[in-house]
Specification:
By secondary structure, the chain is mainly α. The protein has helices at 24-44, 51-58, 62-68, 72-97, 101-121, 123-134, 140-157, 167-189, 193-215; strands at 11-12, 19-20.
């Protein structure tokens, strides 16, 4: 039987995939669970992740884990969303602070190379991302992230774009840049390091040239 310890202050998260704690004690417990899940993914992969193993590694009753996460899909979704939330905030601040189109073009290139670097340094994150892509129930989280980042880039670029480029085309360009950055990075990770890095650099150059073509239209 699942041991439930819910309180009125523990509220369902977006999409009701997991329950977000608001009490400090609950937050610490959930952080421990997530850290344990991440360790297990790094060791065994997301496909082998089991709820009982997460609870055992975290040193909590299995019911406490189920209180916040109904299944492993919810655990993956939460790990992915929390990581992306931190990245989104950094990107938003950097795009908003750009004072010229040149800076924005450089930031767009940095977005591609920085994402690849993060994935290269964190095998668990790669596996979590792959698990998200393979799961139809939560695949939208990746698209939602691309839309958020595209929104930051769109808002920053809009004032620099020529009169021939519509908002619709600019939005599509920003979305493609952000979404394909993930695809390019994941492809590069499957290649030898030198080849993968060269592929990512080439995509970054394509992003810069693409933006120039749209801005100058």
């Amino acid at each position: 039987m699942k041991e439930l310890e819910s309180t009125p202050e523990d509220e369902p998260a977006s999409g009701n995939l997991w329950r977000e704690p608001t009490q400090e004690r609950s937050r610490r417990r959930v952080d421990t669970m997530l850290a344990s899940a991440r360790q297990l993914i790094a060791e065994k992969g997301s496909e082998s992740l089991k709820m009982r193993e997460i609870a055992d590694r975290a040193g909590v009753p299995i019911g406490s884990l189920y209180q916040f996460f109904p299944d492993r899909t919810a655990v993956l979704a939460c790990l992915f969303s929390k990581y992306l939330g931190a990245v989104n905030e950094v990107l938003r601040e950097r795009f908003e602070a750009a004072a010229s189109i040149g800076q924005l073009e450089n930031l767009a290139e940095d977005l591609v190379e920085s994402l690849y670097g993060l994935l290269l340094d964190d095998p668990a994150l790669v596996d979590i991302w792959t698990g998200i892509q393979a799961n139809k129930a939560i695949r939208h989280l990746d698209l939602d992230d691309s839309r958020r980042n595209a929104g930051f880039l769109f808002d920053s670029l809009r004032k620099w774009v020529g009169p021939k480029t519509s908002d619709g085309r600019l939005w599509q360009a920003c979305f493609l840049i952000c979404d394909l950055a993930g695809s390019a990075s994941r492809t590069a990770l499957g290649l030898p390091d030198e080849e993968g890095a060269a592929l990512v650099r080439e995509y970054a150059k394509m992003v810069s040239a693409y933006l120039k073509s749209i801005i100058d239209a």
